[in-house]
Amino acid sequence: MTRDLRRPSPDSRRLRDGLTGTLVGLVGVVLVAWPGLTLLMVSQLAGWAMGVAGLVRASELGSEGRWRSLEFAGSSMAGLLGVALIAWPDRSLVAVSVLAGGFLITNGASRLVASINATTPRAEALANLLGLGEAMLGILIIARPVAGLRATTVLVGIGLILHGLSHMWRSARAPGRAPVTDSG
Asked: pLDDT digit string (tens) for 72-114?
């Protein structure tokens, strides 16, 4: 009997699900326990990533003589936004959160409009619920940017904890390999 090597064994799948669940759950606990510190760290990491990537790409385009291109302008703006995130994380987070709040409001409104074309009542109800939730979260973030970001961070953390628990539950409930017995 040969085993198909393209498919993972049940034991490796259990181990993968268990480790994934543990790591995702731990990230969720960190987000719930320290939302402010997490936001600061994410803004700093995003600032460094955007700053370096944007300025490096802008310098590449400049060395090619493409100073007036739209890509050069976008890369330069991303680089400058990254520098702003590093230099003024609190103000930058407020600006980014207001933009994110506007996006959530418009996305929630578009979900509500799209629910008109839902094929089943259940799909319509789900689209309405998601649309209202997104729009309300957008309004909260615009009204109170820092508190809205912290609330969003906590909600994401709770979601990650639940996702991690489901992976661990699936790992614990998955059938393992049958024990080898001596039949001699």
From this structure: 888 888 888 888 888 888 787 788 788 888 888 988 888 888 7
Residue 45 phi/psi, 5° resolution? -65, -45
Alpha-carbon distance of 81 to 93, in angstroms, equals 11
| Residue with tokens 């994410």, as numbered in its chain | 42
Residue 113, classed as helix, strand or coil, is: helix
For residue 180, the number of C-alpha atoms closer than 13 Å in the C-beta half-sphere is 0
Two tokens, residue 148: 């809205």
Where do runs of H (alpha helix) occur along the chain?
A: 10-33, 35-63, 70-87, 89-114, 121-143, 145-173
The residue to which tokens 């939730």 are assigned:
133
pTM value?
0.61
- Residue 9 DSSP one-character state: P
